[in-house]
Design a protein that fits this description.
The chain has helices spanning 3-11, 28-48, 55-66, 79-84, 178-185, 194-202, 233-239, 260-265, 276-286, 298-302, 307-323, 385-397, 453-461; strands at residues 99-103, 114-122, 129-133, 138-142, 145-147, 327-331, 338-339, 341-349, 355-364, 423-424, 439-443. The chain is α+β, with helices and mostly antiparallel strands. It folds into 3 domains: 24-147, no CATH class; 233-293, no CATH class; 298-461, no CATH class.
């Protein structure tokens, strides 16, 4: 770009920043906006069933809506309001791609005076309507446009019940009931007894089988099994955290382990039939690394025999959150969005499958955050793999040592900006000091699960 263009941008208060080509991760704000606009364009094209060649019209309308949507960066105002000092009027905004009628006098005297089209936005120069004509495949700017009504009226006609197998009478047509035919054939001055009609319609249908057939017997009620089920000793030790997933021998004098297939075939390598404990052990050992062994809720964790270890993990996590000054307890403000939280439990294992530790992590329910109120940007630049490979090649060529390290509770290091208020429900069983009627946690850092957590951690590293 020329120096003249740079001076022009500076005179308009625009700061120019240049990035290297093929590095879109460095243009986080612009790439996120392009992504948002592209998603809106795709949604409008699919909802309206219009051709993809109108993507430019859809992009213009998506940008038009973006400039009339409030954002927290501007104090919950729209860019239109900041520029023109008045709020935009979106009361009668049409749906993009809706069908319209356009006044047309180009035909003969007997031709229609309207043409069918699809509304694809406003014209920025004349503030008129841009209409797409499917028969011509063109887009024009029109003034006299009539929009179709959005509300549709549905009329429900009542149909009287008719017994199965009974045919309509000759006087009835198109599924009309006998009562309707009687009303039509009745003299005009003779009143119709509505009570008798309702009685006729509610009578039981005739029995076509006769008295020779007995009614079917009632279905027997389902009965729950009263059999008591007991867990094997190994399964109890595995849930208590004392077992291992690498397995044990099916008998003390065996050196080889029985496979699941052998146990289901009925014999082991020693030729002996397995017992129930061996079958349960093989099945549990096969799924020991599955997620099903980790509790999904705190109630499920409390009902398990290893609740003591989960409780220790929860206390350790709360201690880490307190040391990091994750939140402060405040009275619940009125008119704010308060997000929830939940515990995520995970059994950490070592390389041989033995239980290493019990891990509990408190995460925020970020899906309940509102864009423009609780967060703005969520982009996070990532490392380019080609750059990482280049560093490893240089290190290998010069025989350098490469050290890899991990941050403990990395997201807890990302601080929230002043005025970025996020309120969260306190975790179940959390003890507070002080008298609060409706206590909530005001986050001071971006907790795991929040929308802006990854971005805050990236900004902390930079």
């Amino acid at each position: 770009m020329s120096e003249e263009f740079t001076k022009y941008l500076k005179s308009k208060g625009t700061e120019r920043r240049v990035t290297v080509h093929d590095t879109p991760e460095h243009n986080g704000v612009a790439e996120r906006l392009n992504w948002t606009l592209a998603e809106r364009v795709r949604a409008m094209l699919h909802a309206s069933s219009l051709p993809k060649s109108l993507w430019g019209e859809a992009m213009m309308h998506a940008t038009w809506l973006k400039n009339r949507s409030s954002t927290r960066r501007l104090g919950n105002k729209t860019p239109y309001e900041v520029l023109y000092s008045k709020k935009p009027n979106l009361e009668k905004l049409p749906v993009w791609g809706c069908q319209v009628k356009v006044h047309d006098t180009s035909g003969s005297k007997l031709d229609m005076r309207a043409r069918d089209g699809h509304w694809v936005g406003f014209d920025p120069e004349s503030d008129r309507h841009r209409i797409y004509f499917a028969d011509r495949g063109t887009v024009g700017v029109e003034r006299s446009v009539v929009f179709a009504q959005r509300d549709a009226t549905v009329t429900l006609t009542s149909v009287s019940a008719q017994p199965e197998g009974e045919k309509n009478s000759p006087n009835s047509s198109n599924g009309e009931s006998n009562a309707d035919s009687a009303d039509a054939n009745a003299p005009p001055n003779e009143p119709v007894d509505e009570t008798s009609q309702r009685t006729t319609q509610t009578d039981d249908p005739p029995d076509h089988l006769g008295d020779a057939f007995e009614p079917p017997p009632p279905e027997p009620a389902l009965r729950r099994s009263t059999r008591q089920r007991f867990e094997s000793e190994y399964f109890k030790r595995l849930k208590a955290g004392e077992g291992t997933a690498d397995g044990r021998t099916t008998h003390p004098n065996e050196t080889a382990k029985a496979t699941i297939k052998e146990l289901f075939d009925g014999t082991t390598r020693t030729g002996k039939c397995p017992d129930d404990d061996d079958v349960v052990f093989a099945m549990v050992a096969g799924v020991a690394d599955a997620e099903a062994l980790d509790p999904s809720t705190i109630d499920e964790a409390q009902s398990r025999v290893d609740w003591g270890r989960w409780q220790t993990a929860i206390e350790s996590e709360l201690s880490s959150l307190a040391d990091a000054r994750t939140w402060k307890v405040v009275e619940r403000p009125d008119g704010v969005n308060v997000i929830g939280c939940k515990w995520v439990f995970k059994i950490k294992r070592n390389a041989v499958g033995e239980i290493d530790k019990y891990k509990a992590r408190l995460v925020a329910k970020g899906y309940s955050q509102v864009q423009g109120v609780d967060y703005d940007d969520t982009y996070t630049p990532v490392a380019c793999l080609s750059s990482l490979r280049t560093i490893l090649v240089i290190a290998a060529r010069n025989d350098w040592d490469v050290e890899v390290f991990d941050f403990h509770s990395a997201f807890l290091n990302g601080k929230l900006d002043p005025g970025e208020d996020i309120y969260m429900e306190l975790p179940p069983g959390y003890k507070i000091d002080g008298n609060y009627k409706r206590p909530v946690a005001k986050l001071l850092v971006a907790l795991y699960g929040s929308k802006q957590g990854a971005l805050k951690w990236y900004l902390e590293l930079c």
